[in-house]
Design brief:
Elements: E1 2-4, H1 10-13, E2 19-21, H2 24-28, H3 42-46, H4 64-74, E3 79-84, H5 93-96, H6 106-109, E4 114-118, E5 137-138, H7 152-159, E6 163-166, H8 170-177, E7 182-184
Parallel strand pairs: 1-2, 3-4, 3-6, 4-5, 6-7
């Protein structure tokens, strides 16, 4: 099996144990006939149900050198919670419904011994300066992944956190792939993949 992805994602996905292609030229190197399927259609093609979804985690991993680096930068003090409040597509109406007002994290900031580590990227990171508990939010990780699509630094940061609390965005899926504890705050009418009537997702 081969996964076709954007070039920037190849380093993160290379640990999956399958071939990673980043262009049609890569695919052309395989002499076999190409049969392709969108990733979200694989479950249907393989007859996978909610009861039989493979649940072997983690299936992604962070690079050890980056884990060590971020461990030193973050230190060992406190209960570290990574937070992300705006989806990467936060400018469109559909994705805006996924977003969380940063002010909603105030109760977490008030807990003794808690350190809030911002995982937020883009313009929304400026929201930190607008909340009363701005001094409780650490931005050391906001310079992770100069190319935001790579996720290599973010994955390493997550291995050094005790918890991630986020809106419905890539941060949620990355934390799950790393088998890290993550709470996703979902809108009342959420994406269908989260399902209904449960507090977890296969």
């Amino acid at each position: 099996m081969t996964i076709l992805t954007r070039p920037a994602m190849k380093p993160l996905l290379s640990g999956l144990g399958v071939k990673i292609a980043t262009s049609a030229d890569d695919l052309a190197l395989d002499p076999r006939a190409i049969r392709w399927l969108p990733l979200m259609s694989i479950a249907g093609a393989l007859g996978i149900t909610t009861e039989t979804v493979p649940a072997s985690v983690p299936y992604l991993s962070a690079q050890p050198v980056r884990i060590d680096e971020w461990g030193q930068r973050l230190g060992t003090e406190g209960f570290k919670i990574g937070i992300n409040w705006v989806s990467g597509h936060g400018s469109t109406r559909h994705f805006t419904k996924r977003n969380i007002p940063l002010a909603a994290f105030a109760p977490l900031a008030a807990l003794p011994g808690v350190r809030l580590i911002s995982l937020q990227k883009g313009e929304a990171a400026a929201d930190i300066g607008k909340v009363d508990f701005r001094d409780k939010i650490e931005t050391v990780a906001t310079d992770a992944d100069p190319d935001a699509d790579l996720f290599l630094d973010t994955a390493a940061v997550m291995t050094r956190l005790h918890l991630v609390v986020t809106c419905d965005t890539s941060v949620t899926h990355l934390a799950g792939a790393l088998a890290g504890p993550v709470f996703a705050a979902l809108p009342a009418i959420a994406d269908w993949r989260w399902l209904l009537g449960r507090d977890d997702t296969p």
